[in-house]
Every structure is written in C-alpha cells, then in structure tokens.
Amino acid sequence: MEDTAWLSRTELLIGRQKLEKLMSSHVLVVGLGGVGSFAAEFICRSGVGEMTIVDGDIVDPSNRNRQLPALATTHGQSKAEIMAERLKAINPELKLHVIKDFVKPEAVAEILSGNYDYVIDAIDSVTPKLTFMKAAYDKGLRIVSSMGAGGKVDPTLLKVDDISKSYNCPFAQQVRKMLKKEGIYKGIKVVFSPEETDKNSLMLTDGSNYKKSAYGTVSYMPATFGATAASVVIRDLIAI
Q1: What Pfam families does the annotation carry (predicted)?
Q2: What pLDDT is recorded for position 106?
Q3: CA-based R_g, the chain, Å
Q4: Average of pLDDT values for 199-217?
Q5: CB neighbour class for 138 (10 Å; exposed up to 12, middle 13-18, buried from 19)
Q6: Where are the beta strands (DSSP E) in 125-165?
Q7: 201-223: string of b/e by CB count within 10 Å (b at 16+)?
Q8: Does this model's pTM top 0.85?
Q9: For residues 86 and 93, what is the distance between their CA atoms, to the nearest angstrom?
Q10: Taking Cα atoms as reference points, which of 147, 221, 111, 132 lies closest to residue 184?
Q11: Buried b (16+ CB within 10 A) or exposed e, 161-187
C-alpha cells in the first residue's frame, strides 16, 4: 500500500479526496531548465502520482545560477537523469517516464502520445515551443506554457492569463505572432511577466537547438515561473 504520510501537510490543506485526485493524475513537464526543473519538483512534491519529464540537454556551468540539476559536481551530466533520480528520491512510488531527447518538431507527436491530465511547457526555444504548443492545443490537452523569464527581476509582477492577454514580453509576442499564423489566437494558458525586459542583457548564441539568443537571468526568476506554472496545474487538477 502506498505510504502517504509524507503528504500529510498537503492533505491537511486540500483534503483526502483532492489529494487522491493528484495521486491519480499524470503530468508531462517538457524542458528541465530554470523553469521546468522547479516546476517538475513542485509537481512531484504535491503528490502527483505519474509524471513524464523531457529534456535532451546536459548541465553547463552557466546553468548553475538558476537550474535545479546544475551543480559544480554535475557538469556534463544529463538533466533528465539528474531530475529523475531526484524525483524518485522525493517519492519512490512515483510512476516516472523519462525522455532524454530535445523537443524536435518531428518528435512532438510521439511525446504527446501519452495519456496526460496536464502539460507544462517550459521550452525556451521558439520553434520547438510553437510546434509543441500547437500540437497540444490541437489535441485538446490542458497546458500551461511559460513565457520569457529572462531580462526580468521582479517576481511579484508575474501573471497567469490566456496567451492573447499577455503583454510586455518579447518572447510571448513572438509566440503569439507565430501561433496566429497557425490560426490560434487564444485558448492557451501562460505564465508571463509584464515587467519591462532589460534589453541590455541580451546575448546572441550559437543557434544550436533552435535558440539564437538569450537574456540574462537571476536565480529566483525562472524558479518563480516554474512554481507558478506548477501551481496552475495543481489548482486546475483539484479545481481550486
């Protein structure tokens, strides 16, 4: 029989019936960087019984300022493998599926073939993100998507709303524009910050994995985006 003593504080807050709903739910988290790694941990610690995590990247030294799997001792290791070990250490009875692959457009259909109750999109490259969001939308999956956490410093300004109502976020603007070309104008929940982006923190990258540029980030901002996305999933699953 499953040991739920470690969830006693959660049960105290939401009650046994809602806890059992979380325990019977399956959540997909795509992208295990600064946003997704924290989102995955919070989903696991909430008592969700089944998870699928997706990431093909390895830990880079520059990840250590904001990503849960990134330590001085984990450089070069698979983020998905580190997070899998961590999630199973939190809940040994978690039914966990691990996909160690980048979200290439051609892989999206296979990733979304599972039976998910909710999806967290923490992809930080526009082309794979767009492909993923459109596919999840077309399948009618419940999804919450993280917009840009870079170039921002005030976590108290975060908002959750429909993609059509996001503003002051260059990343969201780009995503909205591309979704409109696909005939999608609304119907996807997003976490975003309307704080003015510090454009002086922009840097160009080598373009690998569909990512051509990035903004500077500070430790707590991506984590707050991840926590907010996880809260959306948990609250929606148990109808709070």
Answers
A1: ThiF
A2: 86
A3: 17
A4: 78
A5: exposed
A6: 143-146, 159-162
A7: eeeeeeeebbeeebbebbeebbb
A8: yes
A9: 13
A10: 132
A11: eebeebeebbbbeebbebbeeeebeee
Residue pair 65/217 in contact (Cβ under 8 Å)? The answer is: yes
Q: Note the pLDDT of residue 211.
A: 65
DSSP 35: T
CA distances from 23 to 17, 85, 100, 224 (A): 10, 19, 24, 24
Q: At residue 1, does pLDDT exceed 60?
A: no
Domains of the chain by start residue, with CATH: 14-237 (3.40.50.720)
**Distance from C-alpha of 235 to C-alpha of 43, rounded to nearest angstrom:** 11
- pLDDT (tens digit per residue) in 63-107: 999 999 999 999 999 999 999 999 999 999 999 999 999 998 888
Instruction: Give the total residue count for the chain.
Output: 240
| Span 217-233, pLDDT tens digits | 999 999 999 999 999 99
